[in-house]
Write a structure and sequence with these properties.
single chain; alpha+beta; eight-stranded antiparallel barrel; 8 strands
């Protein structure tokens, strides 16, 4: 009897972990980008995935900017955004356990770091 309960619990945990992994990064994400000098910039992204390809857009007060060159490989991701006359390269890693994305942004020769969390929208 104890063995049946242990196997049932193990299978249930495996299913939950697999579901969390397959849910992946698709959806809406938000964070704050510290810019130095006490300034920060809100980040809002909407991601879609399809067979290793990452698409979507970034939202800002100036409007939406489409993601370009988006790729997903394992738990890593990369994409670019053309906004305000410059191309901003983004690389990051998805952490399913914390449902967060660690994101590095290369902008004007400077590297910035932010953490994104999934939003309800």
């Amino acid at each position: 009897m104890k063995r049946k309960i242990a196997i049932t619990l193990l299978l249930t945990c495996s299913f939950v972990a697999a579901f969390a992994f397959f849910t992946g990064i698709g959806g809406s994400w938000a964070g704050v980008l510290p810019m130095g000098g006490g300034n920060s910039y809100p980040l809002n992204y909407s991601f879609k995935t399809d067979d290793g390809k990452l698409t979507g857009f970034a939202q800002s007060a100036q409007g939406n900017a489409d993601l370009t060159d988006g790729r997903i490989y394992g738990d890593s991701l990369s994409f670019a955004i053309d906004a305000m006359g410059m191309k901003m390269l983004h690389t990051g890693k998805y952490f399913s356990a914390g449902d967060s994305i660690s994101l590095n942004i290369l902008m004007n020769g400077q590297n910035y770091h932010a953490t994104l969390k999934r939003t309800a929208n």
